[in-house]
Amino acid sequence: MKLIEEHPILDFKHGKRVTFSFDGRQLEGYEGEPIAAALHANGVKVYRETPVRKQPRGFFCAIGKCSSCFMVVDGVPNVRTCITPLKEGMHVETQRGKGVIPAITDKGKR
Amino acid sequence: MRETDVMVIGGGPAGLSAAAEAASFGCDVTLVESDLALGGQLIKQTHKFFGSKDERAGTRGFKISELLLEELSGYGNVKTYTNCTATGYYPEDGVVTCVRAEDEYFKIKPKKIVMATGAQERLIPFPNNHLPGVYGAGAVQTLMNVYGVKPGDKVLMVGAGNIGLIVSYQLIQAGVQVAGIVEAMDKVGGYWVHAAKVRRLGVPIYLRHTIVEAIGEQYVTGAVIQEIDERFQPQGERKSLDVDIICMAVGLSPTCELLWQAGCEMVFVPELCGYVAQRDRNMRTSHKDIWVAGDAAGIEEASSAMVEGRIAGVSTARALGRGTHE
Questions:
Q1: pLDDT at residue A109 greater than cutoff 60
Q2: What is the model's pTM?
Q3: B178 vs B29, B204, B238, CA distance in Å?
Q4: How far is A93 from chain B (nearest CA, A)?
Q5: The predicted structure's pLDDT at residue B125
Q6: Looking at domain B123-248, does it have CATH number 3.40.50.1820?
Q7: What dihedral angle (degrees, nearest 10) is formed by the CA atoms of B75, B78, B81, B86?
């Protein structure tokens, strides 16, 4: 991971190291940190492809306001990965187009 | 449905100050913050604040956030929700809808609301500005100063206001090379002291220059800059820079969707960087139950956001008949 090792002012305290998948690849990140930050640390910059012009999009505002970092997370599209915390075993996928909202079962769970 | 005296939307310097102030008068306060942590932009600000000592000049931004959170933790009547976005305001019954994480929806009915929703980064038009690698300055700060992730190897900074200058310096502290700073105006917009710090480290500041193109297929692999004339038209030689990040520090716009939705009277004020809610000296909008504070009320900076938050907090308490400390 591309992390800052030495900093004159800050002392970074990362949490538990967890494994997650990105388009089938196994990557590592820190639990509770944004999915987008974990991907960036692994050198992943393209998070989705736009519906009409098929252009790549990635990180942009980091505060959940711009929609640039939408991805499919555990089957759910349009997840704001810059403000969604990473968990062990998450399935993160590049979003192509608008995404399909999964059906909700009678138990109210996906 | 949850009920509360004062709902504060946004947990940055304005929202935290408003919540602490309203709570100090005995109000039951509920604060929602869309980010994973409270503190807003303060948590990524490693520089020492300027201005008045009374407003924490000389203290680093992230330390100010810690002080505000410590103050807030002293009140038992404040409930905070992080990773929780206020998604709508319903004027018929005054209900605010919220979503926690991506799938837990709930409603809150507050007596009074302080909108401290902050701001969002602006982007300027140029070919390929959609490419990953073109990032807002705040986003770059989040990556490197909050999560310790190196944003890239070499950066072009667009904008020589205080944010562009300070973030350039912070990039160097994080071990990232800054290829240059372009500024469309014919002088540096930020404080001289910040400009001097980056110049001493050898970073060129190209005045009267702008970015004219981002290079790359899937993500940024370079940038082209060019001089501009008095009418902001590019002229002369195009200069290519070998960078993997283009950092945009070209200003912010107040985040005011909820204020529009609530029917607050909105006015366009260029000095405050866009449409803002009309308000009185106590930060109360034209809607009797809604106050505004911080960048949502007009782009300034964290010191004024904290003052506005305090004023809004006292004013909501007063409107609830709790305007004096016992």
A1: no
A2: 0.94
A3: 44, 9, 19
A4: 16
A5: 96
A6: no
A7: -140
Instruction: Output the pLDDT for position B66.
Output: 96
Mutation choice for B interface testing from A17, A59, A96 by most B CBs within 10 A: A59
In whole angstroms, how far apart are CA B242 and each of A93, B154, B159, B177, B229?
Answer: 30, 8, 18, 11, 24
The pLDDT of residue B57 is 87
Handedness of CA B169, A68, B256, B246 (dihedral sign): positive
> B308 CB near a chain A CB, below 8 Å?
no
Model confidence at A106, in pLDDT bands (50, 70, 90)?
low
List residues bridging with B275 in a β-sheet.
B268
Joined together, the tokens standing for residue B284 give 């109360």
Q: How many CB atoms lie within 10 A of CB B165?
A: 30
Check pLDDT > 60 for residue B277.
Answer: yes
ipTM metric: 0.93
Residue A9 lies in a domain: no
The DSSP bridge partners found for residue B178 are B155
Q: Is residue A11 part of a domain?
A: no
Q: Where in chain B is the domain with CATH 3.50.50.60?
A: 2-120+252-319, 123-248
Residue type at B235? Q
Is A104 domain-assigned? no
Contact B215, B222 (CB under 8 A): yes
Scan for tokens 């103050």, then name that residue: B71
CA distance A56 to chain B (A): 6
Mean pLDDT, range B84-103, rounded to an integer: 94
- Which pLDDT tens digit goes with each residue over A12-44? 999 999 999 999 999 999 999 999 999 999 999
CA distance B170 to chain A (A): 10
Nearest to B38 by CA among B86, B72, B88, B75: B72
Specify the CATH number for the domain of residue A38. 3.10.20.440
Residue B290 confidence class, pLDDT cut points 50, 70, 90: very high
Structure tokens at B324: 């004096």
**Number of Cβ pairs closer than 8 Å across A and B?**
113
The domain tally of chain A equals: 1
CATH class of B2-120+252-319: alpha beta
pLDDT at B297 over 80: yes
**How buried is B55 (Cβ within 10 angstroms: 0-12 exposed, 13-18 middle, 19+ buried)?**
middle
B85 at A interface, C-beta within 8 A: yes
